[in-house]
Amino acid sequence: MVIQLSCNYSFTLIKTNLCKWCDHSSPVCEDNVCMSNCSLTSYCTLAEEVCVAIWKKDNVSVSVRTLCYNPQDMLENIMLANYSSKECLMTPQHSEDGLLFICGCIGDHECNDRLIFDKGVNGSKDVIPVVVISLVPPLLIAVIATMAFYLYRTRQPRKKPKDWVNGSNYRGKLPSLSNGVNSEISSTCANNLNHNTEQLPIQLEALVGKGRFAEVWRARLSHNEGGQYETVAVKIFSAVEYSSWCNERAIFSDANLKHENIVQFLTAEERGGTAAAPQRQYWLIMAYYNMGNLQDFLTGHILTWIELCSLAGSVARGLAHLHSDTTPCGTPKVCEQPCIDSMRDLVLRDRGRPDIPASWTAHPGMQLVCATITECWDHDPEARLTAHCVVERFNTLAQEELENSICTHTPILPSTEDPSPSLPSLTHCTDHSTGIHPYFTSDTQISVSSRQPSQM
Ligand SMILES: Nc1ncnc2c1ncn2[C@@H]1O[C@H](COP(=O)(O)OP(=O)(O)OP(=O)(O)O)[C@@H](O)[C@H]1O
Hints:
Oligomer: single chain
Number of helices: 8
Distance between the termini: 26 Å
Bound molecules: adenosine-5'-triphosphate
Strand content: 15-25%
Shape: elongated
Strand order of the largest sheet: 2-7-6-10-9
Number of strands: 16
Number of domains: 3
Radius of gyration: 27 Å
Low-confidence stretches: 1-13, 157-188, 406-456
Order of helices and strands: HEEEEEEEEEEEHEEEHEEHHHHH
Helix content: 25-40%
């Protein structure tokens, strides 16, 4: 990816450094010299960029990352100190993740292939203090954080489940499903039900959707006898879908799930089974989102570029929060509501992938979105982008949009007369997540499903 991008840029540049460029390679070392073992090479985009190599050792492995980098910028929270030599002379750095060396060089082709250590790669007397300094603070922080978390969990009084029900006359009647204390749902789901809890004063209003396991209703949750109410969504499972309700309830009950881009859960209830209402029903009560589901929305609307950035960014952030490591963006052509088996056949056996219309790529920002979609669907699972990486891409995209002022409110379908502004660069994704750019709104929620992700 990076190589490809660098090549895109290099056409217009006259003299830049030629560097090794691999996100990850396993070095081969002899005495105090390691060869990066990286088979990829790229011209740097800018003349001021130097060749850089980062050598890392953790408990499990040793790896090297090679790249072009502008020494004026921070790299992994480090400023390159010495980069004017033709040789890549490794210097140890403070790192929270283990042992880390970095070098920069300039002038000789692929000078970041040969990594020269002062006193051997396995450390020396000089390295030991660095290791101690690097490891002690994170260890201390981890111990303190664990103790604080333990004290918080053991001493914290039970909270009311939702801020947004405060002030209503049913305060305190809610079962404590979403407060994290009761989040360990056992396989015998019913054991965790609070059968004594008074049911919420909910009046169903209209059926708004149907999934595979349940119906979803818009409903009124009364706040008090004065007639004040709040609109909520009630997902109603029949008795035969009891286990799906249990699964979904267990997922929602996990306090770690809460996120502004994930459906907001209020509580779960068991209803019916009485003489007046003999049919057993299982409810999940959550915030109501009045814009319908994403598929219908996209079918009925043409998004502006800014809306697309916002929507895709918020979906990606929700997914990243769910720790979806391989996030397929876009969908190959499938029937409506495809089952797991047909998706498996289509994607794994037949290697189906979403069609990307050629017209999309005429828009410079959409080129990046399409490239991201393609990478998310890479046949090689190792090469697929993580959801965090997608979030980072959209953050960078938004930032570059602002900087270049190319984000207009025009529809994303490009006009041929429209001169294309300069192509923003894709971020070279690292695993750390960046802050959320204020450019994005947080109006897209992701619903959780009672299916297990591992079924795909
Ligand atoms: N909180 C909500 N607010 C408003 N509408 C909702 C809400 N949750 C679900 N819906 C509507 O109900 C429909 C069915 O949702 P449901 O969660 O049952 O299934 P799904 O997630 O679409 O699919 P699956 O059954 O495969 O999980 C959705 O497509 C959406 O239109």
